[in-house]
From TrEMBL:
Protein name as it appears in the record: Alpha/beta hydrolase
Organism: Pseudomonas cavernae
GO MF term (any one): hydrolase activity
Entry superkingdom: Bacteria
Entry-linked SUPFAM superfamilies: alpha/beta-Hydrolases
Amino acid sequence: MRPETAVVQVHKHYHVHTEFYSSPAARKTIILVNGSLATTASFAQTIKYLQSQFNVVLYDQPYAGQSKAHNSNHQPISKEDEAQILLDLIEHFRVDYLQSFSWGGVAALLALAQQPARIERAVISSFSPLLNEPMLDYLGKGVGYLQAVDRESVGKLVNDTIGKHLPSLFKRYNQRHISSLAEHEYRQMHAHIHKVVNLDSHCQLECLAGIEIPMLFVNGERDEYTTAEDARLFARYLNDCQFATIDNAGHFLDMEHKNAWLQMQHSLLGFLQASPRSNYQQRLTLGETQAMAV
């Protein structure tokens, strides 16, 4: 089914391209938050298992994809701005659930820390509260390529690191997409990385205590950049969180192979559709699994 598209004004003066996938039987709506340098197309695999159960909202950041033609893009925007844009879209589309991917987790957590009343549950995928050595190495190389607007090197870096487990078809798509980005998109990512690598924490952990809703963190077993082990540190800051590890998957999870796609479907739908009782039982099971793995 083709989505309904619209350009929505948010956070005073930004205009964002949105896609609304309506599901006739759905009672709930979920919004998906992109990672860096990504557009709505990056959720093509995720849409396939969410749309049968929920209305789904996708959007491009003001500087990216089909939104960039509607904005001046003279200056990079902050993650706080991205969080406010997300909050405005949550109200506009009357969203119940949220799912973020990779660096989209920063804006998602900042938005959730403001306790939006509509959001009942949230899923944060391929994200951790730590910048480990592999991630710092990746970001360090990326800063230089982005500053030089070295398109080919940025694409190759992504495919050789966080995208190393992607099928060759997706790697070719990544290379084409990244090498065709506008200069302001490189400036946007450069500004974000420069800020991140000079902070003690890139996701402001102290603000998470106000998040009361159930949270699910999903990471790939083979993802050395945002590891499942590091993601479990979120349990120190959140009252109600669960963790799922996708077997034999790297950073891009459901894009990497069919079994990872099936595991993501099972994990997300199981979490989002769980009753309070089954949700509690799932936490016990996950806790037991973690204990055996330690």
